[in-house]
């Protein structure tokens, strides 16, 4: 491993971005997206997650409407089928939702995984919530949980080198396939 000439190298010293035993995936190109969304959504009037349920499912990319939460495709997906589970209420934190909303979010995450397995057979999933601006939430004002289907080799050089993500289907095609399967999968 080569270090800058002015760096003091010790056995436990590693540079940020240098591969190590944790197999980190460094994605600095995502900072433009993270920083770009921070100050845009402050209230319900400017929130796309609040606007979505007032539109048709096709227009809003909603795949399922529940009692307290809904499931929508991510407009900027990491992978095809990248879903977001949102409470209808405009709340920023996981600690702000009710027990009913918490239970429905969990049930919808499980159902989302079953549906995505039926539609596209992913090898794994990333599930998570980015809380607050410092936590990396693109829309920090409205809580949402990510369900990202993953396949071996889906993280290639395109996003990092070419700043391009290859998505093999349009969002409307993905939404239609998931919404249709939602009705058939238990």
Any overview of this molecule?
This protein has a single domain (43-184), classed as 2-Layer Sandwich (HIT family, subunit A). The chain is 30% helix and 13% strand. The chain has helices spanning 31-36, 48-51, 57-60, 99-120, 157-162, 171-184; strands at residues 62-65, 69-73, 83-87, 124-128, 145-150. β1 (62-65) and β2 (69-73) form a beta hairpin. α4 crosses α6 (171-184). The longest helix is centred in the middle third of the chain and has 22 residues, at 99-120. The model is unreliable at 6-17 (pLDDT under 50).
Topology (SSEs and partners):
Layout: H1 31-36, H2 48-51, H3 57-60, E1 62-65, E2 69-73, E3 83-87, H4 99-120, E4 124-128, E5 145-150, H5 157-162, H6 171-184
Antiparallel strand pairs: 1-2, 2-3, 3-5, 4-5
Compact description:
The protein has helices spanning 31-36, 48-51, 57-60, 99-120, 157-162, 171-184; strands at 62-65, 69-73, 83-87, 124-128, 145-150.
Keyword list:
five-stranded antiparallel beta sheet; 5 strands; alpha+beta; globular; 186 residues
Oligomerization status of the protein chains: single chain
Could you state the CATH homologous superfamily? HIT-like
> What is the tally of helical segments?
6
What spatial form do the alpha-carbon principal axes imply? globular
**Architecture, according to CATH?**
2-Layer Sandwich
Weakly predicted, low-confidence segments? 6-17
**Helicity level:** 25-40%
CATH class: Alpha Beta
Q: How big is the Rg?
A: 19 Å
């Amino acid at each position: 491993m080569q270090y800058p000439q002015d760096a003091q190298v010790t056995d436990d010293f590693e540079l940020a971005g240098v591969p190590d035993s944790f197999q980190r995936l460094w994605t600095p190109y995502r900072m433009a997206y993270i920083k770009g969304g921070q100050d845009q959504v402050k209230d319900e009037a400017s929130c796309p997650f609040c606007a979505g349920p007032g539109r048709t499912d096709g227009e809003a990319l909603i795949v399922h409407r529940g009692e307290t939460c809904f499931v929508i495709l991510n407009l900027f997906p990491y992978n095809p089928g990248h879903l977001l589970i949102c409470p209808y209420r405009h709340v920023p934190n996981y600690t702000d939702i009710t027990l009913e909303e918490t239970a429905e979010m969990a049930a919808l995450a499980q159902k989302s995984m079953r549906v995505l397995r039926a539609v596209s057979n992913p090898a794994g999933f990333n599930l998570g919530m980015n809380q607050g601006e410092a936590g990396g939430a693109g829309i920090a004002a409205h809580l949402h949980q990510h369900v990202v289907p993953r396949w071996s080799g889906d993280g290639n050089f395109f996003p990092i080198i070419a700043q391009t993500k290859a998505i093999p289907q349009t969002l409307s095609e993905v939404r239609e396939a998931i919404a249709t399967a939602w009705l058939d999968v238990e």
